[in-house]
């Protein structure tokens, strides 16, 4: 019952919108600074490889696959990483602030925070993950007061047409893809 309220109630949408905008700013600002001020992840990646997260008693790596990934993929392709991180942060922030493709932005924000944590950086990442989880679990209600109100029905119609299904709306007015899909 609480989750139904959280995912469908207009007042819950207001609260989540405020939280979503705050979280969006926390992503947009550093992304913009990295895009405009120059960004190089080389030092960060080298430190993640040189001092990976390890068990204090045994010294065994906690995430050996991720350390391997950083060493053998991210570092050799640091130019790509230098573009993806700032652009990703900026687009996550923009999506959250505008309420456009909110669930995608929230998901990728959670993923980026997870990658930073696995590399050994705590900083604000746990806090941003908690807030991101609150936005993500609100579902379509998180974008109710944003571009998703208009985008999700259009995406739903396009998806129904693409998959040769007929969409019938149940609960109009949420703009959150609340329709059910019926096979033709």
From TrEMBL:
Primary localisation category: membrane
Pfam families recorded: DoxX (PF07681)
Protein name: DoxX family membrane protein
Assigned keywords, A-Z: Membrane, Transmembrane, Transmembrane helix
Compartments it resides in: Membrane
Naturally occurring in which organism (per UniProt): Paenibacillus terricola
Residue stretches spanning the membrane: 90-115, 127-147
Membrane topology: Multi-pass membrane protein
